Amino acid sequence: MKRILVFSLLFLFIFRSEAYAQTMKNDFFKLIFGNLNSASGPVSGPNYKLNTTVGQVAQGLYSGTNWKVKAGFQYVRTNIPFSFTVSQNIIDFGTLTPTNPVTRTTNLTVSSGAAKGFTVILSEDRPMTSSSSATIPDTTCDNGDCTPDKAAQWTGSLTYGFGYRCDDQVGSNCVSGFSADFYKPFPLKPSTTSVMTSQKGGRSKKSQITYKVNIAGSQPAGVYTNLVTYLASPGF
Q: How many structural domains is the chain composed of?
């Protein structure tokens, strides 16, 4: 899973003389600012480069009798409400025959006006399992080297299992690694992995998920099911 590290720097300056923050007031309210954004920009040297903003030291909601201050990215106003849709709730692979892979597709659509875009993660509750407890294993791809966090090529008719891939439809939102015919197995709960992610908001960002299943001749007959869960969240 892609991790984003956010560093918060607090600069403390000590002066011998007294200093006063800006105060704004009228007959109905009084705002006393303990800090103002006073400096920003790139700072660099022979072995480092740093972008800085000296300013707000705390985010949150601050209020009094006649005033309210909302500080932080979570209060960024947007005209794009957050929404997430999955085009199909049930995927039916029909009757499977050995060494004949079957694919089905569904679309994931996200709208987000959040300051840092959005992320969609996924997982499965179990491998595809029949009422007799037989299972179709999760794919490991042609060379046995795909994992929930690494896609690999899966084209062989003798490579069995269940997996998925992600293809961009509107916007570039699928996580990297899904080259042509590259697939991943689903992570098993409680583990998850990202399938879509964006650092920018927007309307109707769409990706297509392709599910693929292939069975061996020794696979016991039965009705196989599992549950795939998607969780979308805005970024801050």
A: 2
Of 33, 59, 75, which residue sits at a domain end?
75
Based on the domain organization, do 70 and 91 belong to the same domain? no
Q: Is residue 11 part of a domain?
A: no
Nearest to 137 by CA among 151, 150, 153, 126: 126
Rounded Cα gap, residues 110 and 89, in angstroms: 16
Residue 81 and residue 79: Cα distance in Å, rounded? 6
Task: Check the CA dihedral 54-55-58-61 and report its sign.
Answer: negative
pLDDT tens column, 55-110: 555 667 888 888 887 776 566 666 788 899 999 999 999 999 999 999 999 999 99
Q: What is the pLDDT of residues 107-162, one digit of tens each?
A: 999 998 877 889 999 999 999 999 999 999 999 999 999 999 999 999 999 999 99
Burial class (CB in 10 A: 0-12, 13-18, 19+), 201: buried
